[in-house]
Amino acid sequence: MDGQLIAFTGVAAGMVAMPGADFTVVVRNALVSRRAGVASALGVAGGLLLHTALAVAGVAAVLAAVPALFSALQLLGGAYVLYLGVRTLRSLSRPYSAVEESGGGAVRPVRQGFVTNALNPKAPITFLSLLPQFVPAGEPALPRTLLLALIVVVLALVWFPAVALLVDRLGRWLRRPRAARLVAGVTGAALTVLGAVLLLEGLSALG
88: burial class by Cβ within 10 Å (0-12, 13-18, 19+)? Predict the structure, then answer.
């Protein structure tokens, strides 16, 4: 049994399951409908696929070597997450409407999940530094890193849809007007804070 592979799976599972903007976006969309939640979960997995592909290709090293590029992506990601948070908080001033919030079918939730994850510049740096640690000495790097990247994507494809389905399962309670406003307020505030932190980090790095 490959002990390093098991260890990597545990570390990667913890990284994927760690609450953050991805988790919050999936919960937010799952409150609209199961379809929207699963769609955004698939979008997040698509973003992770992009990051792991960049790490395997070594392109992520450019982000580490060019601080201005890293900061620019951080600002873009922070602005997008902040936009989602403010949009969610603004929706509290209107009567709760799943139909209105789910406009655009599954396309918009997929895009939201993908963009939220893809614009996180810390992810490729994390994978670039993490993947090589689990490549045994003397073993070809490319096949191993491809396997590790596949594990990350599979974990995301299991975790985020599971979160979406759980939220949808609890939807009868969560979609009650009072509960829906409470959850929307919490997720909106979380996204707003996360976006603001990313923006501040990006601005401080540029300064």
Answer: buried
State how far the Cα of 54 lies from the Cα of 65, in Å rounded to an integer.
14
Residue type, 71: S
The pTM score is: 0.69
Closest to 84 (Cα-Cα) out of 192, 200, 182:
192
Residue 23: partners with Cβ closer than 8 Å, 6 or more residues away: 160, 163
Which residues are CB-contacts of 99 (< 8 A; sequence separation ≥ 6)? none
d(CA 84, CA 206): 24
For the stretch 118-140, pLDDT in tens is 887 777 766 766 776 777 766 77
For 95, counting Cβ atoms within 10 Å of its Cβ (0-12 exposed, 13-18 middle, 19+ buried), the class is exposed
Count CA atoms within 13 Å of residue 130 on its CB side. Answer: 23
Q: In the 8-state DSSP scheme, what is residue 119? A: T
Q: What is the pLDDT of residues 159-179, one digit of tens each?
A: 999 999 998 888 766 666 676
